[in-house]
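Could you help me review a protein record that somebody else here produced? This is what I was given.
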Amino acid sequence: MHRAMRGLIQTVLESVQRDGLPGSHHFFITFDTMHPDVEIADWLSDRYPGEMTIVIQHWFADLDVTDEGFAITLNFGDNPEPLYIPYDSIKTFVDPSVEFGLRFETQGDDDSDEDDDAEAPMDVMVEPDDKPSDAPREAEVVSLDKFRK
């Protein structure tokens, strides 16, 4: 399940790389700054020693999406900084313009990707179906744990 959801993130970012951000879409991506494959400036890892949230919206450059992660240059206080973020380091991916989000949680320090994929809970934020389409909507978090056997 985690692989499929990370594949969705890859597909969305590939679209942005190819066509830019459509309309009012923007993304909040929280990732583990201590993940061994994350590449960020030392001053950023010192300032955000556990996790960091980036926003892909108005200004970004050099977006390069691969099968393992993505590179992007973002502006931090008028300082452009390159980052590399592997999909495995992502904790949350949210597009508030369409009230969609994914949250990945890990349990323990097991290095096996298949075990992590099978055991780690993941929440998906979706729009509730019971409101008229013209009514203001709130995102609902649905835990996939309740569907596990």
Remarks:
- The longest strand covers residues 69-76.
